[in-house]
Amino acid sequence: MELNEFFYQHYWWFLISLLGALLVFLLFVQGGQTLFSAVAKKPIEKTMLVNSLGRKWEFTFTTLVVFGGAFFASFPLFYSTSFGGAYWLWMAILFSFIIQAVSYEYRSKKGNLLGTKVYDIFLLINGFVGIILLGIAVGTFFTGADFRIDKNNLMDVSMPVISTWQNPSHGLEAIVDWRNLLLGVTVFFLARVQASLYFMNNIDDDTIYIRCRRQVLYNAIPFVVLFLTFVAVTLLSDGYEFADGSSEIYVRPYKYFFNLVEMPWVAVLFLAGVASVLYAIIRAAFATKWRLGIWFSGIGTVLVVLSLFFLAGYNNTPYYPSATDMQSSLTIYNSSSSLFTLEVMSVVSLLLPFVLGYIFYAWRAMDRAPITELEMESGEHKY
């Protein structure tokens, strides 16, 4: 393998990991949609919550689309295998995000077809389904999926299909794997914690602040328990590995634990991220008035999710194991685009810092002043 190709494959897995980490952070929008009834007791309070999230939902949706697009450009065999094989799982995720977009666009418009309550139900569905199913989908990076790869099929004129799914559920079987479900529910409670922290930062209302502070603690307890369980299960489980210069894949006991040991820089990122999230939770739950929790929690979340993606894809680890045929498992080497495509797309990726800079600028512009009850009563545009 050429050095350049090796570099670009690792570079693109880093970008995929970064986009996935940012997506998990931005799921606080979905988490917030599940907190409306717990935090808002009056219509004006609900309006404040909806508008707080309404100014950010497009960031989550855009990041999800870019995440999928980056996979298509850099690791097309994963895209065709997972998105093409586990299509019921991905269609359910996509549908939940579509109804979210429609809801924010039409829920407050006069004469809307379905009525505000129906759109609020859509937001609630997106909050539960979108988060948990995304967590389940990412869980398959560790637990595997039922597919088979045969590149010789390209020579078969009657059926030139490289990857085939091995069961009729097409992705729905991932939901009944308790390890995937464990990660999905863990991400769900994390999103609710971060939504509470975000409301505390973004809304200037003492009553909402106090209720959100309670929600931080209520949701942090199951999150921490579930997260520690997921980490323990993952580090103690067997995984797949391949040797340098070899395409043969074999089982290695405690694979992800050894990945953490053999990549100490990942362990440092992981521990720093965990410490940052715990600091945000503890201080926000017990301090009299502290609004910076979302930033400590957000940075910590990005670091932890980055670490998990690194454990799944680096150190000769198949990032998409096949539960049907071990040798069909996908790695960053056997599923990547050509060197030319990776090089060209890497030039395009240099625009990413400018995009992130624009997001930061837009975020700051929208949050220059916290949302208040007076603004909601007098503002022209409301979600």
TrEMBL record:
It is a multi-pass membrane protein. This is Cytochrome D ubiquinol oxidase subunit II. GO terms for molecular function: electron transfer activity; metal ion binding; oxidoreductase activity, acting on diphenols and related substances as donors, oxygen as acceptor. It is found in: Cell membrane. Keywords: Cell membrane, Electron transport, Heme, Iron, Membrane, Metal-binding, Transmembrane, Transmembrane helix, Transport. GO terms for cellular component: cytochrome complex; plasma membrane. The chain crosses the membrane at residues 12-36, 57-79, 85-106, 118-142, 181-200, 216-236, 256-282, 294-314, 339-361. Belongs to the cytochrome ubiquinol oxidase subunit 2 family. It holds the Pfam family Cyt_bd_oxida_II. It comes from Coprobacter secundus subsp. similis. One of its GO terms (biological process) is aerobic electron transport chain. The keyword Heme applies.
